[in-house]
């Protein structure tokens, strides 16, 4: 299951940060997921709860931010948001475009007790 492996990656990233920053109860984890990653937020949340049960991450709230798909037109040079998975430049209608973002999976913030760890 796609979301399960993503949830496992998130937990790994959080654990690495915990190891580097001491221990404490994790209150929330904010992740940024590109629309192209095809993640269903409810499934991801469900998997995250399932695999953190009984670990120091138990009870942490997963906050999922979805980011738009952005494509760069090779013909006219415009960056535009891709809607409805139509990969065509809205300015010159060229299909010679390259996706520049929308595939990311990034842990952007981990909140431990009252302390925030920002992961870049
Ligand atoms: Zn164009």
Element layout with pairings:
Elements lengths: L1 H20 L4 E9 L6 H12 L8 E7 L1 E5 L5 E4 L14 E5 L3 E8 L2 E4 L2
Parallel strand pairs: 1-2
Antiparallel strand pairs: 1-6, 3-4, 3-5, 6-7
Helix pairs in contact: 1-2
Distance between the termini: 27 Å
Q: Look at the structure and give the CATH class.
A: Alpha Beta
| Strand residue content | 35-45%
Under CATH, the topology can be stated as: hypothetical protein PF0899 fold
Strand element count:
7
Uncertain regions spanning at least 5 consecutive residues: none
Q: How are the strands of the largest sheet arranged?
A: 2-1-6-7
H/E topology pattern: HEHEEEEEE
Percent helix among the residues? 25-40%
CATH architecture: 2-Layer Sandwich
Gyration radius (Cα, Å) is 17 Å
Kindly give the count of domains: 1
Bound molecules: zinc ion
Q: Structural class from helices and strands?
A: alpha+beta
* Biggest β-sheet description: 4 strands, mixed
Number of helices: 2
Mean pLDDT: 89
**Principal-axis shape:** elongated
Describe the structure.
The protein has helices at 2-21, 41-52; strands at 26-34, 61-67, 69-73, 79-82, 97-101, 105-112, 115-118. It is built from two helices and seven strands, in the order H-E-H-E-E-E-E-E-E. The strands form two sheets. A four-stranded mixed sheet has the order 2-1-6-7, covered by helices on one side. Strands 4-3-5 form a three-stranded antiparallel sheet, with no helix packed on it. It starts with a helix and ends with a strand. The chain is 27% helix and 35% strand. It is an alpha+beta fold. The structure holds zinc ion. Zinc ion binds next to loops. Zinc ion is lined by residues 73, 75-76, 78, 89, 91-92, 94.
């Amino acid at each position: 299951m796609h979301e399960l492996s993503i949830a496992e990656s998130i937990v790994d990233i959080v654990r690495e940060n915990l190891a580097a920053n001491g221990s404490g109860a994790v209150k929330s984890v904010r992740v940024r997921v590109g629309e192209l990653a095809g993640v269903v937020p409810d499934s991801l949340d469900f998997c995250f709860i399932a695999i953190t049960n009984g670990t120091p991450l138990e009870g942490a709230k997963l906050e999922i931010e979805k980011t738009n798909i952005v494509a760069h037109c090779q013909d006219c040079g415009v960056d535009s948001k891709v809607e409805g998975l139509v990969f065509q430049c809205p300015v010159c209608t060229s299909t010679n475009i390259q996706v520049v973002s929308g595939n990311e999976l990034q842990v952007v913030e981990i909140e431990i007790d009252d302390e925030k760890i920002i992961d870049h």
